[in-house]
Sequence to fold (171 residues):
Amino acid sequence: MSGNKTFEELPVWQAGRELVRQVYAFTRRPPVVLDAGYCDQIQRAAVSVTNNIAEGHERDTTVELVLFLFYAKGSAGEVRSLLWNAGDIGYLPAPAAADLRDLARNISHQLRGWIASMQTPDFNPGPKYHKEPPAGLRRWELYLEQQGLFRLANGRYTQTTGGTKPVNETE
Fold:
């Protein structure tokens, strides 16, 4: 979805790799190395940035790419939050935590720009975002309507006679 580039050629993915390297280096030093839960959480969040960029890129649809870029952006935010925690509890000196947060913030900005570039006026993110029924469900409902069944607002179906929609049907 990015022209002819592979995800490995994308600057934002490369920046994500640098974030992973620095997070892993930070979590291998005392005292943080002794906190397995924290190490696992921040490592997973950092790796999630690059993995979601790669997975979205490989899906070959704009809608899925945007969705996975949002996941990657969320993971970059999670890394920043965990880095604030690291500074607060003494795992990382404030300047080092700020440098890593800046790297994660830069990734978020790149992702936001990429997402915005794809959300043009003709962009159709699909039913998940517009609360429209998926095409398959709509075809099924049309078939049911032909059979005299109509879906009520509460999700239940009601039988009608003559194939017309019920009027003032109580739910």
Observations:
- The mean pLDDT is 85.
- DSSP finds six helices and two strands in the chain.
- The domain at 7-126 is CATH 1.20.1440.60 (de novo design (two linked rop proteins)).
